[in-house]
Amino acid sequence: xxxxxxxxxxxxxxxxxxxxxxxxxxxxxxxxxxxxxxxxxxxxxxxxxxxxxxxxxxxxxxxxxxxxxxxxxxxxxxxxxxxxxxxxxxxxxxxxxxxxxxxxxxxxxxxxxxxxxxxxxxxxxxxxxxxxxxxxxxxxxxxxxxxxxxxxxxxxxxxxxxxxxxxxxxxxxxxxxxxxxxxxxxxxxxxxxxxxxxxxxxxxxxxxxxxxxxxxxxxxxxxxxxxxxxxxxxxxxxxxxxxxxxxxxxxxxxxxxxxxxxxxxxxxxxxxxxxxxxxxxxxxxxxxxxxxxxxxxxxxxxxxxxxxxxxxxxxxxxxxxxxxxxxxxxxxxxxxxxxxxxxxxxxxxxxxxxxxxxxxxxxxxxxxxxxxxxxxxxxxxxxxxxxxxxxxxxxxxxxxxxxxxxxxxxxxxxxxxxxxxxxxxxxxxxxxxxxxxxxxxxxxxxxxxxxxxxxxxxxxxxxxxxxxxxxxxxxxxxxxxxxxxxxxxxxxxxxxxxxxxxxxxxxxxxxxxxxxxxxxxxxxxxxxxxxxxxxxxxxxxxxxxxxxxxxxxxxxxxxxxxxxxxxxxxxxxxxxxxxxxxxxxxxxxxxxxxxxxxxxxxxxxxxxxxxxxxxxxxxxxxxxxxxxxxxx
Length: 632
Known about the structure:
With about 625 residues, this protein is α/β, with parallel strands linked by helices. About 35% of the residues lie in helices and about 15% in strands. The chain has helices spanning about 20-35, 60-75, 180-185, 205-220, 270-275, 315-340, 355-370, 390-405, 415-425, 430-455, 465-470, 490-500, 510-515, 535-540, 545-555, 560-570, 575-595, 595-600, and strands at about 5-10, 40-45, 85-95, 95-105, 110-115, 140, 145-150, 155, 165-170, 190-195, 220-225, 240-245, 250-255, 260-265, 290-295, 345-350, 380, 405-410, 455-460, 480. It has a seven-stranded mixed beta sheet, covered by helices on one side. The longest helix is centred in the middle third of the chain and has 26 residues, at about 315-340. The protein is elongated.
């Protein structure tokens, strides 16, 4: 439960139709199993004590009495279990029968929640037996206690921020105004659904979409437990389609699930952050709600949940290809509009032979193609100096020639040496002045060529570099339109690979060699063998780590301690925790120190959920202190 994580589960135990003793035995065993696994919230299917398919037997006093007695036995048998669980049964009250969920914790029934929407179409005819939920809260005497009975009930642990649970039952999910919407607006972060959804061709996908969409719309975790093996197959088949979804993302899912627990850790702090960050999410309105407080025992456990090492990059090849195509289109459309609006006669790109400038040139080519413009109006400029290697210089020219753009070489060595002489800098001192003088000279060359040709300088810097401040102020930091400004470094490689595999086949060979070249600003002299001496990741750390830090700190607002935990979990076997901690500290230090560079960025298209535009997404004081974020 550390860092806001709570282990939750859904289960569809083996049942027998109207065999309450058999069903209860299995329910009790599943609760005890959940307790052994430190699960804090467990959901069973609809009417799981009796079976959903009892039909007219629901009218029999024998069954209704057995259901109550079984619930009492279930509660008493699980009193030592630190699990809040929801189980289904028919409950008679005030002369009416209700399809009900019972919330049970530490041997007590905390609440009864009736089903609101009773299907009475096609294979369903619940109104034959049950009455829809009523408004308000009344009380049912059970085990000598007056137990709240009604739909508007939230169970919470005040000591565990965000652990607020509400319930709906099966068909309640499928209607235009599901009770879960009201529950979420009353503060529920977790919605449980006890279901008995029969299986039909095509229904699985629709059901999954329903659960994912409502979870995303409510910014909530949603636990869906559906009836499975043992239900009557007289007219229907139930397959135990169980799901755990968090803010629209499927954490765990299994259809034809059998009777094993489906387990996941939901991140309550993430849900709270997302609701807080979404300004259109309404304030809590819990008038008329019954709030029931519980106290869960706090435990810390090793996470079983998977966290992607590359949160900006889809893991599946098909989805990744589709994402790359969409991003490139957005980048190109943004530049197309800017070129058309300014009536620019040309586009000027500083082409180093590295990944970022390659992507910027490819996007520029696509934008010109969209406009029906001659690619010769794109001027690719390579500007060799002290650290330029033969490999990158050659690749820059080969790429420009393959794409059919204009190519120019401006050797800046003489200009930089003159500048060193002007300011009295010793060329043998390869410090920050030595490096930045080259970067600023290159930017001046590009700007002046753009003036000569009536064009725009296209920026090449990416999101990861902006996060670290790994750009020379008023050097490569500046352009007239930055097409890569919201593309993280881990994604740049896949975008270039997309072009190599799917577009511009004449440039595939050189693109693949660029992909194999170490990332470097090439501002320090090359090695004796002519290879790159200045490898960026040796200096600032692995970009795959920095992009991980960037996503979870900036996008989700997680604490550095939590990010360290997640990174250590995700990169287990790749990096040691001390190594990750070292570079996380570097990320935090640089992120705070370099905000002044992000406060005056050029325009550029937003293509993902994170961007540092000071005009839209990121407004941070340049003199903010970082001490609260420093790792101990």
